[in-house]
């Protein structure tokens, strides 16, 4: 079985490649640099070097593949975030059509059912619609919760300012998930040949968590049980993000997303059950965060 993996050097893609190689698949690992793909090549993946917005490039590793893992990569510093995402999405769709790729598992997000007011997730709403428009493509859209890994940058803020700071309201529960659990679900779906048509599946993590609860769990593990979560005003948060390298357009979308989370609009449509819950608890991830915190 030949499976093409976009974003192969990234959080979900790397784990998917490893899992598929273990299962005996031929893996076409896509990335922009041979050097970053080298560890996967050493494990037996085929490195395919090219840009994810180059339709002519993408069509080659899609051609002849049994399935592909699709994701829309993003840069923090892109001037017009939504326009750039649209270009990448259109290139992907053009390549899928040209190559006649038969089956795809596409990463999306909870909140992607909303056409607006959901910040950067808006681009995933349009992307899903474009993918659904490809006739004959068996398509599984994975709508994942917020990645646990979003808390990694918080370690620097904890060290410098003794708090976790963000724009979301402290006590609103949100589906949060380890990226490795998304990878496991995606790999299983890529290897399975018994599904057809188009479907959406939510991946909600082990349980919903609020920013305040996540902060308490992290604090307990780094020896700061009183670690506070501080909700920043939107203007101030946008300024902090700009200082951290976000473009103005992405910073504005981020605070829009924070507002949507605070309003409870980024949530499961299906309701949580065994089929959309995943095993890794935030506590286990926080142990890894604590190790990172101590080692830095
Ligand atoms: N973070 C969340 O909470 C969340 C929640 C739900 C869904 N999502 C979705 O998850 C997807 C990201 O998945 P991921 O975390 O597995 O990916 P990732 O690790 O962020 O990135 C995947 C790969 O994309 C490439 N890349 C990075 N910046 C790029 C740029 N500016 N232009 C082109 N390529 C670039 C890099 O590979 P090379 O350098 O090797 O090319 C990177 O390894 C996005 O579509 C996002 O919307 C995120």
The best one-word shape is: globular
Q: Could you say what the CATH architecture of one domain is?
A: 3-Layer(aba) Sandwich
Query: How many alpha or pi helices?
Result: 11
Structural class by SSE content: alpha/beta
CATH uppermost class of one domain: Alpha Beta
Uncertain residue segments:
none
Strand arrangement in the largest pleated sheet: 3-2-1-4-5-6-10
Bound ions, cofactors and other small molecules, one mention each = NADP nicotinamide-adenine-dinucleotide phosphate
SSE pattern, N- to C-terminal: EHEHEHEHEHEEHEEHEEHEHHH
CATH topology grouping of one domain: Rossmann fold
* Binned strand content: 15-25%
Estimate the mean pLDDT confidence. 97
- Let me know the largest β-sheet: 7 strands, parallel
The CATH homologous superfamily of one domain is named NAD(P)-binding Rossmann-like Domain
Structure summary:
With 296 residues, the chain is α/β, with parallel strands linked by helices. Helix content is 44%, strand content 18%. It has a domain at 2-147 and 176-203: NAD(P)-binding Rossmann-like Domain (Rossmann fold).
